[in-house]
Structures are given as C-alpha cells and as structure tokens.
C-alpha cells in the first residue's frame, strides 16, 4: 500500500493549489472524492462476490457429504428392513389364524380393507352446537349473546327516575 503521511499530503495539496488554481480546486477535489468512493465500493463488491463464491463452494462440498451419508443410512436401513422381514416371516410362519387372542381379533376387525383404521365420527362439539343456535331463539330463551361487565349490567337494569318527580 502507498504510505502517505501528513507531510506528503500537504505537499500534494500545495502542488494542486498552484497547478489547478484556487477557483477550480474544490470542484476537482469533489470529483476525486466521488471517484475514490466509487472505486472503494467496487473493490468491496468484488471482495463480497469472491467470499460468496467461496462459501458456495464450501456449501456444495458439505451438501455432497450429507447426501452420501444419507445414501449410506438409507441403504443400511433398507438392508436392516429386509433382515427384519426375513426374521419376521420365519417367526410367524408356524402360526395359524386360530392362535390370535380376542384382543388381536378385535383390533383386526377395526381395520378397514386397506389396512388402516376405519373412520369413527367424533362426538359433537358443544361450542359448534351453541354457535349453530339461531339468534331469534337465543333472544326468546334469554341466552346471553354478549359479554357485559357487572357495572354495565347494573347500569342497564337500574330503574330510571320518572320525569314527573322532578
């Protein structure tokens, strides 16, 4: 990097004052400042782009290593599953249909034809039932539809003074 001290900057400023002149020096200094700013921003953008590309390469390498590990795990799980299937078929080969207990037969009867439990409708939700009641019925039976504070309820039902007594 260029080593610019205060003495060198003062010498450059004096030469510029003599060569350019005092009238044009502020405009030239402004132009030089904007050009230096643009150059610094350009250098910063290039550095950021280089660092992003390096991070991208690192991420690609990491992705490849994770994918290979996932493939290894998948193959080991598949081989383990096939071993389990073989051992399961060997263990259950001697059993016949009469060996099931009543609990097992009940569980199998709840299963549908596709092997999943059959649909059972849930009980009705009382909140939905309350919301389904029409407003005119609520008004006739006295069901409260709006929440009201105690003070507001007292003020609402307080007897009004008659205008004749005033």
Q: What's the shape?
A: flat
Which blocks of ≥5 consecutive residues have pLDDT under 50?
A: none
End-to-end separation in angstroms reads 98 Å
Tell me the structural class.
mainly alpha
Number of helices: 6
Secondary structure: number of strands: 0
Average pLDDT number: 81
Radius of gyration: 43 Å
β-strand amount: under 5%
Largest beta-sheet characterization? none
* N to C succession of SSEs: HHHHHH
Helix content: 55-70%
What do you see in this structure?
It is a single-pass membrane protein. Keywords: Cell inner membrane, Cell membrane, Membrane, Protein transport, Translocation, Transmembrane, Transmembrane helix, Transport. The protein has 166 residues and is mainly alpha-helical. The chain has a domain at 22-68. The protein contains six helices and no strands. The protein has helices at residues 6-20, 25-92, 102-110, 126-132, 135-141, 150-157. The radius of gyration is 43 Å and the shape is flat. The termini are far apart. 0% of the residues are buried.
Q: How are the elements arranged and paired?
A:
Blueprint: H1 6-20, H2 25-92, H3 102-110, H4 126-132, H5 135-141, H6 150-157
Pfam families: TatA_B_E
Protein name: Sec-independent protein translocase protein TatB
Keywords: Cell inner membrane, Cell membrane, Membrane, Protein transport, Translocation, Transmembrane, Transmembrane helix, Transport
